[in-house]
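Marked as duplicate of an earlier ticket. Keeping the data here for the record.
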Amino acid sequence: MSKIIIENNTVYDIPIINIYQENAFNAPLVFFIHGYGGDREQALDYGYMLAKKGLYYVSMDCKGHGERKVINEANRFYNVFPSDSGLDTYVHMHEVIEQSAIDIQRLVDYFNSKEEINPHRIGISGYSMGGYASFYIAATNPDIKAAASIAGKPAFTKAWQDSITSTATYEQWSKPLRDVTKEIEKRTEYFRMIDPFDKLSSFSPRPLLIINGDQDTDSNYIYSLELYTKLLPFYEDHPAKLQLRMPFAGHQFTYGMKRGACNWFEKYLV
């Protein structure tokens, strides 16, 4: 096996980390999106595993994270919910997801001209927020040829509405939520606009791996199960290219999950 190179770089204004085999040429490219509050170094071991198999790994600092963290960041929505409810953070996370898709396209355009990369073999992967983003990017970017989402939710609108409904059952939050009904409607419309759930039907027959721990209380597996059920007819002629795995795990990116995602990309991109 060739020497593994790990390097930091900045493409346009996006800090990235690359992991690849020395003298890489025409290698499949896998982008990784980190979780909310993380940074581009979150899954270095995963990147190393992919590089060992001959893939070129790129992870970036998402909007407002890592070296892109700024004070008084400009966002689409201002805070309107009780701070301890977590709802404003949840909305902001989706703004980061939306920007991540834009950033990935910029990086795709950049790497398309590099001889180290095969521009026709590009995959997307991510954990937690990155799992959400992987669904969104797979649904909206035709350059993506394979995807592996870990601990994400593919149903943005339904998950948001469920969060509002469940939060309103708490006595200390029920009245504050009633007072911002119009703001909830604005954010609900935003979630509908970026929701990948229905759009993911068009991803078929490209390979889609969904990994969701069956003990995950942050990203309940029910949303992944509903997507899997919806997509089954679209993969009827290629059943092996759609897989849902629900290991006995919580909200985490375990070694077994990393190995499974790595093998997925080796199978369908290399």
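See parent ticket for discussion. The chain has a mean pLDDT of 97.
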